[in-house]
Amino acid sequence: MDQSSESRRPIASRDTGWAKRTAAYLAAHGVSPNTISVFSIVFSFFGLLAFYADLHSSGFGLHLLWMILAIAFIQFRLIMNLFDGMVAVEHHQKSIIGGLFNEVPDRISDTFTLFGVGLLVKDMPYGMDLAYLAIILAVTTAYIRTLGASLGCPHYFIGPMAKQHRMAFVCAACIVAVFYVPVFYYVLIVMNIGLLITCWRRLEKIITCLKQSATK
User: Fold this and answer.
1) What is the DSSP string of 48-100?
2) Among 12, 88, 116, 196, which is disulfide-ready with 51 (CB 3.0 to 4.6 Å)?
3) What is the Cα–Cα distance from 200 to 166, expressed in whole angstroms?
4) Given a cut of 60, is residue 2 above it in pLDDT?
5) For residue 8, what pLDDT band results from cuts at 50, 70 and 90?
6) CA-wise closest residue to 86 among 17, 24, 163, 167
7) Pairwise CA distance, residues 195 & 161, whole Å
8) Which has the minimum average pLDDT: 40-44, 75-79, 93-97, 165-169?
9) pLDDT at site 125
10) Start-to-end Cα distance in the chain
11) How wide is the angle at C-alpha 192 spanned by C-alphas 182 and 48, nearest 5°?
12) What is the mean pLDDT of the chain?
């Protein structure tokens, strides 16, 4: 993990007492930022398994359990995303390969989560296609952000479907899905529209940044 202050996603919980204490504990016990980043993949994979298990289970009780677990694993993934940066920056444990661990696990984690959502609507028209498109566009939003940074612009984390927005959207859908599973189908449609808007907004920001830099 290797994050400068300019490349860090704004996260309000970073300044909370529990987050600071936990990050300090992890750093003191030798847990590296890169290891924490890998655990984000692990939790996302467990989330995928929860979606898969729900697809093949029956009964309201089990369905409720799998939706709760899916939400929990998504949140654990996001918590790993919080702590890897805190341990790297606040506790001075950056590494030369940290940039890879900053980006690659997020893309894998997004893929697991969105693929899991697609499984639950695979029998609806173009259900899995919508999931595949969401995965592609989620990767594209990150590509555009990092491309802009490589050209000398800031990292633009704007939405409306940045990572934290996508995960919050899926978690909210899990709550609704306790009673109405097809909600995931409409979530994917809205998410894809939002991802297209996000790509466009980030590109606009980068274009403006590059034009302003050229006039200086």
Assistant:
1) HHHHHHHHT--SHHHHHHHHHHHHHHHHHHHHHHHHHHHHHHTTT---TTHHH
2) 116
3) 17
4) no
5) low
6) 24
7) 5
8) 93-97
9) 96
10) 33
11) 55
12) 92
Provide the CATH number for the domain formed by 12-208 in this structure: 1.20.120.1760
Round the CA-based radius of gyration of the chain to a whole number and report it.
18
> What residues contact 127, with CB distance under 8 A and at least 6 apart?
118, 121, 185, 188
d(CA 37, CA 82): 9
Tell me the two tokens of residue 70: 């899916």
What pTM does this model have? Answer: 0.91
CA distance 78 to 44: 9
Has residue 88 got a pLDDT over 90? no
> In the chain, where does DSSP find H-type helix?
17-28, 33-55, 60-89, 98-119, 127-150, 163-177, 183-214
Chain centroid offset of residue 11 CA: 13
pLDDT at residue 5, as a whole number = 47
Q: Where exactly are the structural domains of the chain?
A: 12-208
CA atoms within 13 A on the CB side of 120: 31
Stretch 182-201: mean pLDDT: 98
Residue type, 127: G
Under DSSP, the state recorded for 5 is G
Distance separating alpha carbons of residues 101 and 105, to the nearest angstrom: 6
User: CA of 21: how far to CAs of 18, 82, 87, 188, 195, in Å?
Assistant: 5, 13, 11, 36, 34
